[in-house]
């Protein structure tokens, strides 16, 4: 099973995983997402992302401009890792939790 993450297979795995992350765009070795949320939602999202990022030992860039939040994951000088794709998926979970009226829970 280790071969799945090596060489060409790793690239294919990450590409496949990225196709499942709606709203994320790839820019070189980084991925980014823009979210239209208010200041309160931004603060809640930032706190949730910090917990996950700390656990994964990663540092996403999160910035606030007008009515939207910009998130960047990855480094311009190194390939995107499995952990960074996982972080993006967890950011999506956090976004749903703070942006949806029911907290992202299934009904």
UniProtKB/TrEMBL annotation:
InterPro entries: PCD_sf, Pterin_deHydtase. Its EC number is 4.2.1.96. Keywords: Lyase. It holds the Pfam family Pterin_4a. It is an enzyme of class 4 (lyase). One of its GO terms (molecular function) is 4-alpha-hydroxytetrahydrobiopterin dehydratase activity. Coiled coil: none annotated. The keyword Lyase applies. One of its GO terms (biological process) is tetrahydrobiopterin biosynthetic process. It catalyses: (4aS,6R)-4a-hydroxy-L-erythro-5,6,7,8-tetrahydrobiopterin = (6R)-L-erythro-6,7-dihydrobiopterin + H2O. It comes from the Bacteria. Belongs to the pterin-4-alpha-carbinolamine dehydratase family. This is Putative pterin-4-alpha-carbinolamine dehydratase. It comes from Micromonospora maris.
């Amino acid at each position: 099973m280790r071969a799945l993450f090596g060489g060409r297979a790793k690239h294919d795995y990450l590409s496949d995983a990225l196709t499942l992350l709606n709203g994320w765009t790839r820019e070189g070795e980084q991925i980014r997402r823009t979210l239209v949320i208010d200041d309160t939602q931004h603060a809640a999202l930032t706190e949730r992302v910090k917990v996950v990022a700390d656990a994964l030992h990663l540092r996403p860039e999160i910035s606030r401009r007008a009515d939207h939040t910009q998130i960047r994951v990855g480094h311009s000088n190194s390939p995107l890792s499995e952990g960074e794709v996982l972080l993006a998926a967890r950011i999506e979970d956090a976004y749903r939790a703070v942006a949806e009226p029911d907290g992202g829970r299934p009904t």
